[in-house]
Amino acid sequence: MEEDVESRFRVGRLEVSDYEKGFISLLSQLTICPPISLDEFCSRFMEIEALDDDHVICVVEATKQGRLVATGSIFVEQKFLTGCGKVGHIKDVVIDSAARGMRLGQRVVGFLSKHARSVGCYKVILDCKPDNRGFYERCGF
């Protein structure tokens, strides 16, 4: 019996150990991302971690391979408008080229959208390139 997608992937928040699982090389599939040392990664990780729920990075790990195959992040903007409301901004969504077509992008966007709702965002904004528009429309944007 073929393994289902749910059991093959772990979806969760970025961890320090994800550096060794190819986080930076995965980001390089989205845009230019120069190599950084583990120390630099840990320093930035701690800065982001200090922001708690206002900056969350989601990762998807292929559990058998122990490598990351998808990621995305959300920033929560604190506003004065709408009664001191909050707006989520989804950014930097990338799926490993070898893992596309498995709905991992939908899982990343779903994870981030659920987080936005859990912290009280009244809306979530996602900007993308025109050729990615169809995908994000299927995700509800």
Gross morphology is: globular
Q: How many angstroms separate the termini?
A: 35 Å
Strand percentage, roughly?
Answer: 25-35%
Order of helices and strands: HEHHEEHEHEH
Task: Give the helix tally.
Answer: 6
Low-confidence spans: none
Across the major sheet, the strand order is 1-2-3-4-5
CATH homologous superfamily (4th level) name? Gcn5-related N-acetyltransferase (GNAT)
Q: What oligomeric arrangement do these chains adopt? A: single chain
Please characterize this protein's 3D structure.
The structure is a single chain. This protein is an alpha+beta fold and 141 residues long. The protein has a single domain (5-138), classed as 3-Layer(aba) Sandwich (Aminopeptidase), CATH 3.40.630.30. Helices cover 33% and strands 29% of the residues. The chain has helices at 5-8, 23-27, 38-50, 81-84, 104-118, 133-138; strands at 9-13, 55-62, 67-78, 86-95, 121-126. It has a five-stranded mixed β-sheet with strand order 1-2-3-4-5. Strand 2 and strand 3 form a beta hairpin. It is found in: Endoplasmic reticulum membrane. GO terms for molecular function: glucosamine 6-phosphate N-acetyltransferase activity. One of its GO terms (biological process) is UDP-N-acetylglucosamine biosynthetic process.
